[in-house]
Specification:
With 90 residues, the chain is mainly alpha-helical. The chain is built from 3 helices and 2 strands. Strands 1-2 form a two-stranded antiparallel sheet. Helix 1 crosses helix 2, helix 1 runs antiparallel to helix 3 and helix 2 packs across helix 3.
């Protein structure tokens, strides 16, 4: 059971790193061959399949001329709840 909890925590950490890198890539205008963009694209390939089902159910929240994607936050909360449940079982 601790292996599963460790994997879930690793996913949460990867998701948080992905969020930070996404801001750096979007607002920092990082070039295509920059290592930060490569790390972001790698994490994006891992995270996007987990976020897509959530995005189908919870659309981005419109805020004036922009929108806020809540799917990463929902996924992190879901992982944390699942981790607590698994720790309570073990």
């Amino acid at each position: 059971m601790s292996f599963v909890v460790s994997i879930l925590q690793l996913i949460s950490l990867g998701l948080i790193v992905w969020i930070v890198l996404s801001y750096i890539v979007v607002f920092g205008r990082v070039s295509f061959d920059h290592p930060i963009r490569k790390a972001y694209e790698f994490l994006n390939r891992l995270v996007e399949p987990m976020l897509a089902p959530i995005r189908r159910v919870v659309p981005p929240v419109r805020m004036g001329g922009s929108s806020l994607d809540l799917s990463p936050l929902i996924l992190i909360i879901g992982i944390q709840l699942l981790t607590r449940i698994l720790r309570g079982i073990a």
